[in-house]
Amino acid sequence: xxxxxxxxxxxxxxxxxxxxxxxxxxxxxxxxxxxxxxxxxxxxxxxxxxxxxxxxxxxxxxxxxxxxxxxxxxxxxxxxxxxxxxxxxxxxxxxxxxxxxxxxxxxxxxxxxxxxxxxxxxxxxxxxxxxxxxxxxxxxxxxxxxxxxxxxxxxxxxxxxxxxxxxxxxxxxxxxxxxxxxxxxxxxxxxxxxxxxxxxxxxxxxxxxxxxxxxxxxxxxxxxxxxxxxxxxxxxxxxxxxxxxxxxxxxxxxxxxxxxxxxxxxxxxxxxxxxxxxxxxxx
Length: 283
Hints:
alpha+beta, three-stranded antiparallel beta sheet
């Protein structure tokens, strides 16, 4: 049992350094006889134990962060998960997610595993993102972790976050000219709302096309249309699918008289989308 008197100011100092709860800080200082370095190690070990005990828990809440590099030529999206909406709305949790996204966009890791080994400033020092996650798991008491990481590059990449960090979009455009940033935001909002399956019909997976054709044919036959008309009508329905579900062919939400491709051409001749990513929380 510790014989050292643990003052409220000592507890507060450790809280400021680690972000851990008051009672956890008091226990850490008591167990380590007031040794601050040992108390920090005590809390880090507690974090690892909490992380191990929470591995089987569901972590479907969290935040999605979309971020671009300073030169606007690369963008990343990360999804950082936790167990409850209460934690997801916490300013410190959101700041931690933003810090991870910052490291991702600056260092361009190839995978979530590589991302987890990047260095990041923690409450007390600089360590890996994986270590920071374990530490914060101990502080928060919930399972947290990065579940998604997406990257795109282009002449101009625009990021958009929708719905209180619940959905993130990246759009890569073919040129960086006057009005392209604003146009990119408009297209990103279109992607958030309409959830296109691909950039254009050439990007639609063959299995999706096959499924859409089979559904169309079944519907046509159910309507009693003659067999010789089935293929032609199904092809028409597939074209309608491309119009509704591929980004460049969709009606532009802000001006339905144009599709997205036509809208972009009014901003800058030949301007188009070269890639996009859409990440929805928990999807």
